[in-house]
């Protein structure tokens, strides 16, 4: 059932319970059979870890990664903070016993502030609708469905990349296993221990043309399937691992010398005025030790 306690919305089905913080629009807890699998950095104050990343999950939009010199669109350059502006804007939320729907609207040209003193501006108006749905259990697995719809509410083409950035609890990096699979046949295309991700450049591994990632620890297993097209794994050794579906590879290794022209940037999509596009992910969770 959906339960509102203070500043928290709780949705559940069977032994799977998800909690969302309306203050920042973040899913910060996913419990299966009594086992918590998420990193709780985005929880309400008092539940957050004392140190480490102070988020649990957010939507990356309209860029993924950093454009240090800004983004270039139709002859003009705009400053856009890391991972875009959606993470810095509020969401209006409605809930049912097993579902939360959150909506965010942005008017093109509006300045958006980030806590670090950064200002973002994007020329296109949009409306995002994201959904969290605790689905029917499948044998020993609990399931959370996530989706995000992008609607172009401006009168010009909207260039964008979108990603989902959920963070899970990191356990036993030397033993925990990560595997990424492709789309058509779910054949393995990347396999490693979690500790190897931390040793990668920027603590990040990007696997293109992928549709599923699995993360196996001592206490739980996570299987994340998606239709975004690419998967990024981020692990800094601070107690979390982010499994991130995204439509385009991160901009962080591009645009260091000048603005990024995202209308011609590989992997960026172009959405006509009035049109929408939806991306989905399913998080299946199994508790190995309740």
Helix and strand arrangement:
Elements: E1 3-5, E2 8-13, E3 16-21, E4 26-32, E5 35-36, E6 59-60, E7 71-73, E8 76-78, E9 92-96, E10 99-106, E11 112-113, E12 119-120, E13 126-138, E14 141-152, E15 158-160, E16 163-164, E17 167-169, E18 177-181, E19 188-193, H1 194-198, E20 204-207, E21 212-216, E22 220-226, E23 230-234, E24 240-246, E25 260-261, E26 269-271, E27 276-287
Parallel strand pairs: 7-25
Antiparallel strand pairs: 1-2, 2-3, 3-4, 4-5, 6-16, 7-8, 9-10, 10-13, 11-12, 13-14, 14-27, 15-26, 17-24, 18-19, 18-21, 20-23, 21-22, 22-27, 23-24
Low-confidence stretches: none
- As a percent range, the share of helical residues equals under 10%
Strand neighbour order, sheet with most strands? 9-10-13-14-27-22-21-18-19
CATH architecture: Distorted Sandwich
Q: What does this entry look like structurally?
A:
The protein is an all-beta fold and 290 residues long. The protein has one domain: Beta-galactosidase, Chain A, domain 5, CATH 2.70.98.10. Helix content is 2%, strand content 48%. It has one helix at 194-198, and strands at 3-5, 8-13, 16-21, 26-32, 35-36, 59-60, 71-73, 76-78, 92-96, 99-106, 112-113, 119-120, 126-138, 141-152, 158-160, 163-164, 167-169, 177-181, 188-193, 204-207, 212-216, 220-226, 230-234, 240-246, 260-261, 269-271, 276-287. The strands form 7 sheets. Strands 9-10-13-14-27-22-21-18-19 form a 9-stranded antiparallel beta sheet. A hairpin with a 5-residue loop joins strand 23 (230-234) and strand 24. 42% of the residues are buried. The model has no long low-confidence stretch (mean pLDDT 93).
């Amino acid at each position: 059932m959906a339960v509102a306690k203070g500043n928290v919305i709780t949705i559940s089905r069977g032994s799977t319970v998800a909690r969302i913080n309306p203050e920042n629009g973040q899913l910060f807890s996913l419990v299966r059979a009594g086992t918590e699998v998420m990193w709780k950095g985005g929880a309400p104050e008092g539940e957050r870890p004392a140190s480490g990343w102070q988020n649990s999950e957010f939507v990356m939009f309209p860029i993924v990664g950093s454009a240090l010199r800004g983004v270039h669109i139709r002859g003009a350059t705009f400053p856009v903070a890391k991972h875009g502006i959606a993470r810095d804007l509020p969401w209006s939320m409605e809930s049912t016993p097993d579902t939360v729907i959150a909506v965010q609207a942005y008017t093109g040209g509006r300045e958006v502030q980030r806590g670090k003193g950064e200002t973002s501006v994007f020329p296109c108006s949009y409306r995002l609708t994201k959904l969290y749905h605790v689905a029917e259990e499948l044998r020993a697995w609990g399931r959370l469905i996530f989706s995000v719809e992008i609607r172009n509410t401006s009168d010009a083409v909207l260039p964008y990349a979108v990603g989902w950035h959920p963070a899970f609890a990191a356990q036993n990096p030397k033993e925990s296993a990560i595997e990424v699979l492709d789309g058509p046949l779910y054949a393995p295309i990347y396999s490693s221990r979690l500790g190897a991700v931390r040793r990668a450049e920027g603590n990040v591994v990007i696997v293109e043309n992928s549709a599923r990632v699995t993360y196996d620890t001592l206490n739980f297993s996570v299987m994340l399937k998606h239709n975004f097209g690419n998967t990024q794994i981020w692990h800094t050794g601070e107690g979390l691992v982010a499994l991130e579906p995204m439509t385009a590879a991160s901009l962080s290794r591009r645009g260091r010398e000048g603005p990024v022209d995202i209308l011609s940037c590989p992997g960026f999509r172009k959405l006509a005025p009035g049109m929408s596009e939806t991306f989905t992910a399913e998080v299946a969770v199994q508790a190995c030790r309740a």
